[in-house]
Write a structure and sequence with these properties.
Bound molecules: iron/sulfur cluster
Structural class: alpha+beta
Order of helices and strands: HEHEEHEHHHH
Largest sheet: 2 strands, antiparallel
Mean pLDDT: 73
Strand content: 5-15%
CATH topology: Alpha-Beta Plaits
Radius of gyration: 15 Å
Number of helices: 7
Distance between the termini: 24 Å
Shape: globular
Length: 149
């Protein structure tokens, strides 16, 4: 269980996270909101859930405190997280911003990210078949949120 946050601890986290070379990017088209990533993330309040409706739920990552540890990406049962270079999300505060803002560097400069995930970045994940193929989730709205990969 992560330690609770206070101002001093958050400041320390932000300082540490500023040195991270990679950050976690969530594929919201496939995220089931199962909260496994929240459970494994060592940074308090780094990942937060939105939405209670199963058809419109997911999580987003606070980039200012994500330390790039990759634990969420390794443990996500739905394989909906990719680690991306920090410069690609530098203008966003959250992973949610990075997907909704197509003017962001993460979309404008796909050459900044590994080739295998460029398709993920060129269109909105919710409408991009390449994203669904990449993540292997043709039906992102899946009941039973704790089912394995
Ligand atoms: S573990 Fe994966 S599917 Fe579950 S909430 Fe996190 S990103 Fe979404
Ligand atoms: S990479 Fe680590 S710090 Fe960042 S969201 Fe995932 S588990 Fe949390």
């Amino acid at each position: 269980m992560p330690a609770p946050q206070n101002d001093a601890r958050r400041a320390a986290l932000v300082k540490g996270a500023s040195k991270a070379k990679i950050k976690a990017l969530i594929n919201l088209s496939a995220c089931t909101g199962c909260e496994v990533c929240i459970a494994v993330c060592p940074v308090p309040q780094c990942i937060e859930k939105f939405g209670e409706d199963p058809s419109n739920t997911g999580v987003w990552v606070n980039y200012d405190i994500c330390i790039g540890c990759q634990l969420c990406a390794k443990d996500c049962p739905w394989d909906t997280i990719r680690m991306v270079p920090t410069p690609t999300v530098a203008m966003d505060q959250t992973s949610l911003d990075s997907q909704l803002n197509h003017e962001h560097a993460v979309f404008q400069k796909p050459e900044l990210v590994p080739e295998e995930i460029r398709g993920f970045l060129t269109k909105a994940p919710k409408t991009d078949p390449a994203v669904l193929e990449l993540f292997g989730k043709n039906n992102p709205i899946v009941p039973g949120p704790m089912s394995p990969k």
